Amino acid sequence: MFRHVVLFTWVAGTTDEQKATVEAALKELPGAIPEIRRYEIGSDAGVNPGNHEFAVVADFDSVEDYLVYRDHPVHRAVIADAIKPILAERAAVQYAF
Amino acid sequence: MFRHVVLFTWVAGTTDEQKATVEAALKELPGAIPEIRRYEIGSDAGVNPGNHEFAVVADFDSVEDYLVYRDHPVHRAVIADAIKPILAERAAVQYAF
């Protein structure tokens, strides 16, 4: 399998509504992008200090399928419209497992 | 389920052997810590620029089981002996999904 992991921290003042918009928009992606095998996202639980605020873990059958997701117009729109406007920090890895 | 996601970037000059030592030590943890339900780790595939170098995605039945892992002496030893000496950056989220 091939996995995409990305962690986000939002800019100060980001509203709960903006965060909910991101989560809702991302949850639509498995329906729009059939290459997604698993898609598990969520907000940090606050168990440890210094964490990022949100995580996306997306699994694919291959790196090629991940690239379809990465470059898919529906995904790009979520990034441009919901994520980028409130993004302060981003950390990512893609790996085979 | 409860998930722990952590991404690492190693200090410049970290050897492949040191990286392999981290991976091998982490792969021992599911055998030592029965609370781990899924444990999928790996090095960044180099598909995108600016990524961290290594990812750990660990799943548990509950936040309590994650805390057993987090504070487990075998896990703490891997962090102290194999990870900390070569760690440049760390990004993490823990979330329910």
UniProtKB/TrEMBL annotation, chains A, B:
For this protein, the record's SUPFAM superfamilies field holds: Dimeric alpha+beta barrel (SSF54909)
According to the entry, every stretch annotated as the Stress-response A/B barrel domain falls at 2-95
Q: Which InterPro entries match?
A: Dabb, Dimeric_a/b-barrel, HS1/DABB1-like
User: According to the lineage, what is the superkingdom?
Assistant: Bacteria
Subunit structure, briefly?
A: Homodimer.
Specify the protein name: Stress-response A/B barrel domain-containing protein
What organism is this sequence from?
Sphaerisporangium flaviroseum
